[in-house]
Design brief:
This is Transmembrane protein 256-like. With 125 residues, this protein is mainly α. It is built from 5 helices and no strands. The longest helix is centred in the last third of the chain and has 25 residues.
């Protein structure tokens, strides 16, 4: 009887997805710490910035966890491409807005959201 293969060996054999999730998770924690220790003003603009930051960080964490499931997909490279692009465009533009109160990249937010939707759909295939 052969010994079962450790789960980490199975994940490592199916591509870089667990490592990408690790990097994304570390970035989410770092950005979360920066954003949570940042002083937001008590006015309406500051509260909006905090809300945008919390949305970005929540979506970043959720989709980082989804990256861990990519080795189980039939087309993990497609899902990873959409997932990482979505994280960068959606979360990145939200982080930028939250930290600078500049909406320069807000047009990329819905594109990033659509990429995240496509990533989940491609995981279904």
């Amino acid at each position: 009887m052969t010994a079962p293969v450790p789960l980490w060996k199975l994940a490592a054999a199916s591509g870089p997805y667990v490592r990408l999730a690790a990097l994304s998770g570390a970035a989410a924690v770092i950005l979360g710490a920066i954003g949570s220790h940042r002083h937001y003003s008590k006015d309406e603009i500051g509260q909006e910035q905090r809300r945008i930051f919390e949305t970005a960080n929540r979506y970043h964490f959720i989709h980082t966890l989804a990256l861990l499931g990519l080795p189980l997909c039939k087309f993990p490279a497609v899902a990873a491409t959409f997932m990482l692009t979505g994280i960068a465009l959606f979360c990145g533009s939200c982080y930028y807005t939250a930290f600078t109160n500049n909406r320069r990249f807000s047009t990329t937010t819905p594109i990033g959201g659509f990429c995240l939707i496509l990533a989940w759909c491609s995981m279904f295939l």
